[in-house]
Amino acid sequence: MPPAIPAMFFETSPTVVAMCSAGIALFLAGAWAAKNEIAKARGLDKIVALSNLCFAIPLAVFGALHLFGPRFVMNIVPRYMPWRMFWVYAIGCALIAASLSIASRIGVRWSGLLFGLMMFLFVAMIHFPGALRQLHNRIIWTIVFREMSFGGAGWILAGNAMDGRRGPGKSTLIMVGRVLITMTLIVFGIEHFLHPEGLPGVPLEKQMPAWLPGRVLIDYVTGAALLVVAGSILLNRKTRTVAACVGGWILLMVLVIYGPVLIAALHQPGIGVQVEGINYFADTLLFAGAILALASATPRSDAVG
Asked: pTM of the full predicted structure?
Protein backbone atom coordinates (compact mmCIF):
# COMPACT_ATOMS: atom_id res chain seq x y z
CA MET A 1 0.00 0.00 0.00
CA PRO A 2 1.43 3.41 -0.94
CA PRO A 3 2.44 5.37 2.18
CA ALA A 4 0.25 8.30 1.11
CA ILE A 5 -2.95 6.28 1.64
CA PRO A 6 -2.59 5.47 5.36
CA ALA A 7 -1.18 8.94 5.96
CA MET A 8 -4.23 10.47 4.29
CA PHE A 9 -6.52 8.26 6.37
CA PHE A 10 -5.04 9.16 9.73
CA GLU A 11 -4.80 12.87 8.92
CA THR A 12 -8.47 13.00 7.95
CA SER A 13 -11.24 14.36 10.17
CA PRO A 14 -12.51 12.01 12.91
CA THR A 15 -15.95 12.24 11.28
CA VAL A 16 -14.66 10.87 8.00
CA VAL A 17 -12.59 8.19 9.74
CA ALA A 18 -15.63 7.12 11.76
CA MET A 19 -17.87 6.93 8.69
CA CYS A 20 -15.35 4.88 6.71
CA SER A 21 -14.57 2.63 9.67
CA ALA A 22 -18.25 1.97 10.32
CA GLY A 23 -18.82 1.05 6.69
CA ILE A 24 -15.83 -1.29 6.60
CA ALA A 25 -16.80 -2.93 9.90
CA LEU A 26 -20.36 -3.55 8.71
CA PHE A 27 -19.08 -4.88 5.41
CA LEU A 28 -16.97 -7.47 7.22
CA ALA A 29 -19.73 -8.40 9.67
CA GLY A 30 -22.42 -8.52 7.00
CA ALA A 31 -20.29 -10.52 4.59
CA TRP A 32 -19.61 -13.07 7.32
CA ALA A 33 -23.31 -13.31 8.18
CA ALA A 34 -24.32 -13.69 4.52
CA LYS A 35 -21.56 -16.07 3.44
CA ASN A 36 -23.67 -19.23 3.70
CA GLU A 37 -26.62 -17.75 1.85
CA ILE A 38 -24.36 -16.42 -0.89
CA ALA A 39 -22.61 -19.79 -1.17
CA LYS A 40 -25.92 -21.67 -1.49
CA ALA A 41 -27.45 -19.24 -3.97
CA ARG A 42 -27.32 -19.90 -7.69
CA GLY A 43 -27.16 -17.50 -10.60
CA LEU A 44 -28.73 -14.11 -10.01
CA ASP A 45 -29.78 -15.15 -6.52
CA LYS A 46 -26.17 -14.56 -5.47
CA ILE A 47 -26.76 -10.86 -6.19
CA VAL A 48 -30.11 -10.93 -4.38
CA ALA A 49 -28.35 -12.43 -1.35
CA LEU A 50 -26.40 -9.17 -1.03
CA SER A 51 -29.54 -7.15 -0.26
CA ASN A 52 -29.11 -7.03 3.52
CA LEU A 53 -25.41 -6.28 3.20
CA CYS A 54 -25.95 -3.43 0.74
CA PHE A 55 -28.67 -2.04 2.97
CA ALA A 56 -26.81 -2.30 6.28
CA ILE A 57 -23.50 -0.71 5.30
CA PRO A 58 -24.94 2.75 4.49
CA LEU A 59 -26.97 2.79 7.70
CA ALA A 60 -23.78 2.32 9.69
CA VAL A 61 -22.08 5.07 7.70
CA PHE A 62 -24.94 7.51 8.28
CA GLY A 63 -25.13 6.51 11.93
CA ALA A 64 -21.45 7.33 12.35
CA LEU A 65 -22.06 10.70 10.69
CA HIS A 66 -24.74 11.51 13.27
CA LEU A 67 -22.56 10.46 16.18
CA PHE A 68 -19.21 11.90 15.09
CA GLY A 69 -20.29 14.79 12.86
CA PRO A 70 -23.55 16.07 14.33
CA ARG A 71 -22.99 19.55 12.95
CA PHE A 72 -23.51 18.17 9.44
CA VAL A 73 -27.06 17.05 10.23
CA MET A 74 -28.09 19.39 13.04
CA ASN A 75 -29.74 21.89 10.69
CA ILE A 76 -31.95 19.19 9.19
CA VAL A 77 -33.76 18.70 12.50
CA PRO A 78 -36.89 20.90 12.48
CA ARG A 79 -36.47 23.98 14.66
CA TYR A 80 -39.74 23.30 16.45
CA MET A 81 -38.30 20.05 17.82
CA PRO A 82 -37.04 20.28 21.42
CA TRP A 83 -33.60 18.90 22.30
CA ARG A 84 -32.43 18.94 18.69
CA MET A 85 -28.95 17.64 19.46
CA PHE A 86 -30.47 14.77 21.43
CA TRP A 87 -32.41 13.67 18.35
CA VAL A 88 -29.26 13.78 16.21
CA TYR A 89 -27.48 11.38 18.55
CA ALA A 90 -30.58 9.24 19.08
CA ILE A 91 -31.03 8.78 15.34
CA GLY A 92 -27.34 7.96 15.01
CA CYS A 93 -27.69 5.21 17.61
CA ALA A 94 -30.86 3.95 15.92
CA LEU A 95 -29.11 3.74 12.55
CA ILE A 96 -26.18 1.83 14.02
CA ALA A 97 -28.55 -0.57 15.77
CA ALA A 98 -30.57 -1.09 12.58
CA SER A 99 -27.42 -1.71 10.55
CA LEU A 100 -26.22 -4.37 12.99
CA SER A 101 -29.63 -6.02 13.05
CA ILE A 102 -30.04 -6.09 9.27
CA ALA A 103 -26.46 -7.21 8.62
CA SER A 104 -26.67 -10.03 11.17
CA ARG A 105 -30.28 -10.86 10.20
CA ILE A 106 -31.27 -10.76 13.85
CA GLY A 107 -34.52 -9.01 14.70
CA VAL A 108 -34.95 -7.63 11.17
CA ARG A 109 -38.70 -7.88 11.61
CA TRP A 110 -38.48 -4.98 14.05
CA SER A 111 -35.43 -3.09 12.80
CA GLY A 112 -36.76 -2.97 9.24
CA LEU A 113 -40.19 -1.91 10.44
CA LEU A 114 -38.86 0.85 12.70
CA PHE A 115 -36.31 2.07 10.16
CA GLY A 116 -39.06 2.37 7.57
CA LEU A 117 -41.24 4.26 10.00
CA MET A 118 -38.35 6.61 10.75
CA MET A 119 -37.86 7.32 7.04
CA PHE A 120 -41.55 8.07 6.60
CA LEU A 121 -41.42 10.47 9.55
CA PHE A 122 -38.43 12.21 7.96
CA VAL A 123 -40.43 12.64 4.77
CA ALA A 124 -43.52 13.92 6.57
CA MET A 125 -41.69 16.26 8.96
CA ILE A 126 -38.73 17.47 6.91
CA HIS A 127 -38.54 16.68 3.21
CA PHE A 128 -42.14 16.85 2.00
CA PRO A 129 -42.87 20.24 3.62
CA GLY A 130 -39.65 21.54 2.05
CA ALA A 131 -40.69 20.18 -1.33
CA LEU A 132 -44.06 21.90 -1.09
CA ARG A 133 -42.28 25.20 -0.47
CA GLN A 134 -40.10 24.65 -3.56
CA LEU A 135 -42.33 22.85 -6.01
CA HIS A 136 -39.92 23.26 -8.94
CA ASN A 137 -36.82 22.09 -7.07
CA ARG A 138 -36.21 18.63 -8.49
CA ILE A 139 -33.45 17.82 -5.97
CA ILE A 140 -35.80 18.11 -3.00
CA TRP A 141 -38.39 15.94 -4.73
CA THR A 142 -35.66 13.43 -5.53
CA ILE A 143 -34.84 13.28 -1.83
CA VAL A 144 -38.53 12.79 -0.99
CA PHE A 145 -38.79 9.76 -3.27
CA ARG A 146 -35.37 8.48 -2.23
CA GLU A 147 -36.33 8.46 1.45
CA MET A 148 -39.68 6.83 0.70
CA SER A 149 -37.96 4.07 -1.26
CA PHE A 150 -35.53 3.49 1.61
CA GLY A 151 -38.41 3.28 4.07
CA GLY A 152 -40.31 0.97 1.75
CA ALA A 153 -37.28 -1.29 1.43
CA GLY A 154 -36.99 -1.41 5.21
CA TRP A 155 -40.57 -2.64 5.38
CA ILE A 156 -39.86 -5.23 2.70
CA LEU A 157 -36.94 -6.54 4.75
CA ALA A 158 -39.21 -6.66 7.79
CA GLY A 159 -41.82 -8.58 5.81
CA ASN A 160 -39.19 -10.98 4.49
CA ALA A 161 -38.06 -11.65 8.06
CA MET A 162 -41.52 -12.88 9.04
CA ASP A 163 -40.68 -16.44 8.01
CA GLY A 164 -43.56 -18.85 8.12
CA ARG A 165 -46.07 -16.10 8.80
CA ARG A 166 -48.99 -15.47 6.54
CA GLY A 167 -51.40 -12.69 7.10
CA PRO A 168 -52.15 -9.06 6.42
CA GLY A 169 -49.10 -7.80 8.33
CA LYS A 170 -46.43 -9.39 6.17
CA SER A 171 -48.24 -8.87 2.87
CA THR A 172 -49.05 -5.24 3.71
CA LEU A 173 -45.44 -4.39 4.54
CA ILE A 174 -44.19 -5.91 1.30
CA MET A 175 -46.97 -4.36 -0.77
CA VAL A 176 -46.34 -0.86 0.61
CA GLY A 177 -42.63 -1.27 0.02
CA ARG A 178 -43.17 -2.40 -3.58
CA VAL A 179 -45.46 0.55 -4.30
CA LEU A 180 -43.03 3.12 -2.89
CA ILE A 181 -40.02 1.64 -4.65
CA THR A 182 -41.95 1.42 -7.93
CA MET A 183 -42.90 5.09 -7.71
CA THR A 184 -39.27 5.97 -7.07
CA LEU A 185 -38.04 3.84 -9.96
CA ILE A 186 -40.38 5.66 -12.35
CA VAL A 187 -39.37 9.12 -11.10
CA PHE A 188 -35.65 8.34 -11.07
CA GLY A 189 -35.84 6.64 -14.46
CA ILE A 190 -37.38 9.72 -16.05
CA GLU A 191 -34.89 11.98 -14.26
CA HIS A 192 -32.00 10.14 -15.91
CA PHE A 193 -33.34 11.07 -19.33
CA LEU A 194 -34.09 14.66 -18.39
CA HIS A 195 -30.73 15.26 -16.71
CA PRO A 196 -28.08 13.04 -18.29
CA GLU A 197 -24.44 13.19 -17.17
CA GLY A 198 -25.47 13.21 -13.51
CA LEU A 199 -24.20 10.40 -11.33
CA PRO A 200 -26.33 7.30 -12.06
CA GLY A 201 -28.72 5.70 -9.61
CA VAL A 202 -30.00 8.48 -7.37
CA PRO A 203 -30.23 11.55 -9.67
CA LEU A 204 -28.96 14.37 -7.48
CA GLU A 205 -26.80 17.37 -8.41
CA LYS A 206 -23.32 15.88 -8.69
CA GLN A 207 -22.12 15.21 -12.23
CA MET A 208 -20.18 12.20 -13.43
CA PRO A 209 -16.41 12.77 -13.58
CA ALA A 210 -15.09 14.15 -16.85
CA TRP A 211 -12.66 11.24 -17.31
CA LEU A 212 -15.53 8.76 -17.61
CA PRO A 213 -16.40 7.92 -21.25
CA GLY A 214 -20.00 7.54 -22.37
CA ARG A 215 -21.49 9.54 -19.50
CA VAL A 216 -24.78 10.28 -21.26
CA LEU A 217 -25.09 6.67 -22.42
CA ILE A 218 -24.57 5.40 -18.86
CA ASP A 219 -27.37 7.63 -17.60
CA TYR A 220 -29.69 6.59 -20.41
CA VAL A 221 -29.00 2.90 -19.79
CA THR A 222 -29.54 3.37 -16.06
CA GLY A 223 -32.75 5.32 -16.58
CA ALA A 224 -34.09 2.71 -18.99
CA ALA A 225 -33.17 -0.06 -16.56
CA LEU A 226 -35.04 1.61 -13.71
CA LEU A 227 -38.12 2.02 -15.88
CA VAL A 228 -37.92 -1.61 -16.97
CA VAL A 229 -37.91 -2.72 -13.33
CA ALA A 230 -40.94 -0.55 -12.64
CA GLY A 231 -42.69 -2.03 -15.66
CA SER A 232 -41.90 -5.58 -14.57
CA ILE A 233 -43.40 -4.85 -11.15
CA LEU A 234 -46.55 -3.30 -12.60
CA LEU A 235 -46.99 -6.16 -15.07
CA ASN A 236 -45.89 -8.76 -12.51
CA ARG A 237 -43.56 -10.31 -15.06
CA LYS A 238 -40.07 -11.60 -14.23
CA THR A 239 -39.75 -9.06 -11.44
CA ARG A 240 -37.18 -11.03 -9.46
CA THR A 241 -34.89 -11.50 -12.45
CA VAL A 242 -35.15 -7.92 -13.67
CA ALA A 243 -34.76 -6.40 -10.20
CA ALA A 244 -31.74 -8.60 -9.51
CA CYS A 245 -30.10 -7.51 -12.76
CA VAL A 246 -30.78 -3.82 -12.21
CA GLY A 247 -29.78 -3.99 -8.55
CA GLY A 248 -26.55 -5.59 -9.72
CA TRP A 249 -26.11 -2.82 -12.29
CA ILE A 250 -26.50 -0.11 -9.64
CA LEU A 251 -24.07 -1.99 -7.42
CA LEU A 252 -21.60 -2.07 -10.32
CA MET A 253 -22.03 1.69 -10.74
CA VAL A 254 -21.25 2.12 -7.04
CA LEU A 255 -18.00 0.22 -7.45
CA VAL A 256 -16.71 1.61 -10.75
CA ILE A 257 -18.03 5.20 -10.61
CA TYR A 258 -18.86 6.13 -7.04
CA GLY A 259 -15.76 4.37 -5.73
CA PRO A 260 -13.35 6.61 -7.66
CA VAL A 261 -15.52 9.64 -6.84
CA LEU A 262 -15.23 8.73 -3.16
CA ILE A 263 -11.46 8.28 -3.36
CA ALA A 264 -11.10 11.62 -5.14
CA ALA A 265 -13.24 13.31 -2.48
CA LEU A 266 -11.12 11.85 0.32
CA HIS A 267 -8.05 13.42 -1.28
CA GLN A 268 -9.64 16.87 -1.08
CA PRO A 269 -8.73 19.06 1.91
CA GLY A 270 -12.26 20.10 2.91
CA ILE A 271 -14.14 17.86 5.32
CA GLY A 272 -17.42 18.87 3.69
CA VAL A 273 -16.25 17.53 0.33
CA GLN A 274 -15.08 14.30 1.95
CA VAL A 275 -18.37 13.75 3.76
CA GLU A 276 -20.28 14.49 0.56
CA GLY A 277 -18.27 11.87 -1.32
CA ILE A 278 -19.00 9.26 1.33
CA ASN A 279 -22.68 10.20 1.39
CA TYR A 280 -23.05 9.81 -2.38
CA PHE A 281 -21.40 6.39 -2.23
CA ALA A 282 -23.56 5.23 0.69
CA ASP A 283 -26.78 6.69 -0.73
CA THR A 284 -26.46 4.82 -4.00
CA LEU A 285 -25.39 1.61 -2.29
CA LEU A 286 -28.53 1.87 -0.16
CA PHE A 287 -30.62 2.36 -3.31
CA ALA A 288 -29.06 -0.79 -4.77
CA GLY A 289 -29.95 -2.57 -1.54
CA ALA A 290 -33.54 -1.34 -1.83
CA ILE A 291 -33.91 -2.78 -5.34
CA LEU A 292 -32.34 -6.07 -4.26
CA ALA A 293 -34.66 -6.18 -1.24
CA LEU A 294 -37.58 -5.88 -3.63
CA ALA A 295 -36.14 -8.77 -5.66
CA SER A 296 -35.77 -10.86 -2.52
CA ALA A 297 -39.46 -10.40 -1.68
CA THR A 298 -40.52 -11.71 -5.09
CA PRO A 299 -41.15 -15.47 -5.35
CA ARG A 300 -38.59 -17.42 -7.36
CA SER A 301 -41.40 -18.73 -9.55
CA ASP A 302 -41.85 -15.15 -10.78
CA ALA A 303 -38.35 -15.26 -12.25
CA VAL A 304 -39.60 -17.40 -15.07
CA GLY A 305 -43.16 -16.13 -15.14
From this structure: 0.92
